[in-house]
Amino acid sequence: MQSFLQLVAHDLYAKIGNDLSRTALVFPNKRANLFFNEYLAGESDQPIWSPAAMSISDLFQKLSVQKSGDPIRLVCELYKVFKEETQSQETLDDFYFWGELLISDFDDVDKNMVDADKLFNNLQDLKNLMDDYEFLDKEQEEAIQQFFQNFSIERRTELKEKFISLWDKLGTIYHRYRENLTELGIAYEGMLYRNVIEQLDTDQLKYDKYIFVGFNVLNKVENEFFRKLKDAGKALFYWDYDIFYTQQIRKHEAGEFLKRNLGEFPNELPESFFDTFKEPKKIRYISASTENAQARFLPEWIRMITDNHSQIAEEKEKENAVVLCNEALLLPVLHSIPQEVKNVNITMGFPLAQTPVYSFINAAMELQTNGYRSDTGQFTYEAVSAILKHPYTQQLSSHAGPLERELTQTNRFYPLPSELKQDDFLATLFTPRNGIKELCDYLIELIKDISTIYRKEEYNDIFNQLYRESLFQSHTKINRLYSLIESGELSIRTDTLKRLITKVLTSSNIPFHGEPAIGMQVMGVLETRNLDFRNLIILSLNEGQLPKSGGDSSFIPYNLRKAFGMTTIEHKNAVYAYYFYRLIQRAENITLLYNTSSDGLNRGEESRFMLQLLVEGPHDITREYLEAGQSPQSTQEIRVEKTPEVLRRIYRAYDSTNPNSVILSPSALNAYLDCRLRFYYRYIAGLKTPDEVSAEIDSALFGTIFHLSAQLAYTNLTAAGKTIQKEDLERLLRNDVKLQSYVDQAFKEELFKVSPEEKPEYNGIQLINSKVIVSYLKQLLRNDLLYTPFEMVAMEKKVSEEITIQTGQGPFTLRLGGTIDRMDAKESTLRIVDYKTGGSPKIPANIEQLFTPSETRPNYIFQTFLYAAIMSRQQSLMVAPALLYIHRAASENYSPVIEMGEPRKPKIPVNNFAFFEDEFRERLQALLEEIFSEEETFTQTEDTKKCSYCDFKAICKR
To answer: How far apart are CA 176 and CA 180, in angstroms?
Structure first.
């Protein structure tokens, strides 16, 4: 295979010889020159004077007296003109992003040498004078007529009025803007191009010959430039194409502009060199279910092209190219390249957005903007936590980890800066910054701090060199913004600056260093221009990736763009078609992969070029698909046998003679009855869910806050005596402020974890929950009104009882107990009250049902009965267990008394637990002996509904 650049090198050497010092080579991009020089050197065994080489944009820059302006400054300069001309009150923040769009339109106007006065003419004049526009060809005239059919000037709307009023001023804005930039000595690219061509004197050009290699679509400026140099006898043209898409297929978009160029600027190479597309080719279409699956196919592809040889000869590696239509695939591709590939050249830059410095800058900006509340002087936990967890913060501050854990444990939603400044770096990090200048200064300061990490020798590997470069680029770009802010050019809100910094950094790439002409090439589509490869694999060849989906936004309507010869979506599609067909025309092994999954912008559709090649192409094409070798995940049953070690842990944990033993609670027994394995994980293995700060109030926390609110209310009521009178409750029910204060205090203790003096900072949902808990507290008091007078015996009372059971190792004594929500006494009855803020009352058929694992087992009643059994042995009053469902207590006939009985039979109220105590204790004894038995294992529950909200379901894989 003879590549295009080889053909050019051979022809150029034959025509000009050894001395190319007065020759300039102009390529669409810089990369082609690196390969060209190698081919040129191979033409002679004598030293050759190398020609100058440059891209077309470099050439125009060298010929211009103006410099390319900084993109941000260009928008700021346009804003000044816009404001003066329109008298608009629009801020730079609102103008900025559509100001970029306007510059893009002006750029296109200049590159295509459009008469701006005629384009931005009054629309009415444009319609009236259309007949006088002799410069319009038939197609352009039709495009303008089409525009006015769709855009009626007579039928006006508010939006249309705004468009017309601005359109009428665009001509003036355009000219004033160009004048201002000329005075400043800067220009946007299109303006620079146009100025060069308008002032070009071919006699003053530095080189004798300009060799234009491998161009395709030319804008009007480039076309005019080529024409002037051709007329002056200073230009040679080398076009790369194939007669398949320029002659054999009529009106093929890949050849549309080339045919025009070949007519105007004849090719130096004969047509016979450009009939390679018909040569034998092995073409494979492969569909993959994901983007990453395509990258994982690379090792297989490399084995195929090397005929299963273990190594690829180094000189042949450069004949292989991996082309990424979706450049986000770069990292998966790099990880997938096998070891047998010795040399890889990556022509694409590494995205700055995928480096740690980018995520750190984002976290720091979020901390100082949305993460800081200037009204209260507090940060938000989410923003603080995100930056404390970042690897850079962890490396620069030994306090970062402990501080993050402390904030989590204390549930600090809104930490103060003073709490966070625990060392010099954290003091810098958590000092609030106001305004855009301070924010830029803050980011620059942080980047300098981070740079100290990479000064150590252990940070010299390839990735850390990459990250060091990312720090430098970030510093440079933010410093540039800082200069513009300091000079007064850039005056925007903080949120706009944040968006601007994100935009600038996400569009930045870090170049890889290496020898470009050696090794397998990994490249984007644009980098393939002028290059040829024997073995080619193109990834993500989906519709929307090639050609890229959607046209660029523009203020100039499509039909007017078309009428005035400006760039349209058809131009761009033709460019991409040319890139695709030119890339494959000399290749021998072509593998095209596309993603079949439709997610996000990807529709799971192969590129139109693949379909076109299938229908029009002369080659046989095989279709294949990638199938991931997946097997269904099998879940094995988990059983924990009671080994001597497990038994030792159980006995040690609950042995009442051990001073460090714990009490076996009703919650633990309920966990065992629901799922033995959950009991083991939680109470024997001691596994816990990690602490986390959450502004959400789940049902458990809601219940806890209500319990504490009720305790605070009754503690106040019983300060003078334990008897609760009807008048006391009526007085409290009328005092909304006092009730709210009890709830506020409970929130401060249980959710906000702040001192009683601090004011709670409720968000919307928390405020609603607070009001609901106040209403529940009122309902409790109204319910108790009907029960007065009664004596409040205790609230949130810890109780326990020692009980001895028989085990395989002899008698064993443990303690049972827990915390009773409330105990009150009236007449000869001690009532054990358990508050419930959720769920529905259940009626057990008998005591046995409380101990039988099932979906409907009434676990709340089991807990209350256990407390009743303990209290029956510790005092002389008759014990009555009760469950008070606060959210259901509003009905007139509601009673908290627990009832028992078979379905559809009379129910027995449990007003005296003594009737049930013996059977309950007998079954309790059997349950405890089962838990401590050596034969019984800890197994998973059969009721998988219990797994839905289990903390350990990830371990069980259920």
So the answer is: 6
